[in-house]
Amino acid sequence: MSTPSLLILPGDGIGPEVMAEVVKVIDWFGAKRDLPFEVSEDLVGGAAYDKHGTPLHDDTMARAQEVDAVLLGAVGGPKYDDLDFSLKPERGLLRLRKEMDLFANLRPAQCFDALADFSSLKRDVVAGLDIMIVRELTSGIYFGEPRGIFKEGNERVGVNTQRYTESEIERVARSAFELARKRGNKVCSMEKANVMESGILWREVVQKVHDADYADVELSHMYADAGAMQLCRWPKQFDVIVTDNLFGDILSDAAAMLTGSLGMLPSASLGAPMENGRPKALYEPVHGSAPDIAGQGKANPIACILSFAMALRYSFDLGEEATRVEKAVEKVLADGKRTADLLGEDGIEPVSTSEMGDAILAALDASL
Ligand code: NAD
Ligand code: IPM
Ligand code: MN
């Protein structure tokens, strides 16, 4: 295998802080596992706007299309609140997702045993939890036309359009069924077919794909509002959840709290395979730029480090090395290391972002 290329886009707020810890892990793989990566770094979000006047420079977009995988920290912040909509940091991320056609966003929510008491839900409900939300990422209400703020008589109207084609639903459904086969072999599809035509079509297409090619996988359908309730009531009933862009955004933040903190949740955004057989891919934590704690060394780097582990698994076919990273995280948590977001009532002193990164490196060393 030629040296895999990574484009690192740290972004804004805590993005650069957590990404610095990921870089340590990447370097560790070069030094200790003879798995070097060719790493380049660029700007996205507010950081790109500050330098170039745009949240994503065309050159960065082009580079993202060329590399084997993109790693992104987070974008956004109050400094950019008053910018024109088209220039907001979030537009940079949305452009990457859309132009790379990253239609399947994998958001696993796993509860590490050491954190089962940190969830806002009871230990019994979350201990051992391992679910995968597959969020459609390049269509739906995030991108549908018409959209905008229009004048209507004496007042303005804000418009967004939920729109899904059959092929868009089919391809993300296939991703979910393929994943389910490698896990618990169960898919629950969530929409609101009771009130939305796009939901009716979603349900029909998912069922059709299932019956034609994945009849061995157990499929159920749920209205997304009831799904949100079930996710809090008894999340272990789920294996893979497949849902649209907006429902997936909301349900995955809710799922984060099952694991103890938003600072724990990684994600992989995957597109169609490239010429070399690897999927187009971007890896990023589910959390945002956390302006309330940025610059204080408090951020939890685990979501970003686990996102790199997903890159090892899904882009580079290095599942065992991905597991090595996940086990190192598990060990550090079991040893009682906690960033501030994971503190309960047990009087443990929090560690800083870089101390958490160093502890994970030490656990990686110990795994050799
Ligand atoms: P957020 O995820 O940034 O923060 C929500 C809460 O979780 C905050 O209290 C924050 O301190 C905490 N938190 C998040 N990540 C953490 C971590 N790694 N360690 C410790 N605590 C953590 O969401 P928000 O406050 O709604 O949004 C802030 C900005 O981030 C907005 O501009 C938003 O658009 C953007 N955002 C970006 C992404 C992304 O880049 N993928 C995702 C979500 C939000
Ligand atoms: C996420 C974020 C993004 C989204 C924003 C920052 C564009 O909330 O990745 O979950 O809404 O998709
Ligand atoms: Mn979100």
Automatic annotation (TrEMBL):
Recorded GO cellular component terms are: cytosol
On assembly, the entry states:
Homodimer.
Q: Which gene encodes it?
A: leuB
Question: Its catalytic activity?
Answer: (2R,3S)-3-isopropylmalate + NAD(+) = 4-methyl-2-oxopentanoate + CO2 + NADH
Q: What is this protein called?
A: 3-isopropylmalate dehydrogenase
**Its domain of life?**
Bacteria
EC number(s) given by UniProt: 1.1.1.85
Broad class of enzyme this protein falls into = oxidoreductase
Keyword set for this entry? Answer: Amino-acid biosynthesis, Branched-chain amino acid biosynthesis, Cytoplasm, Leucine biosynthesis, Magnesium, Manganese, Metal-binding, NAD, Oxidoreductase
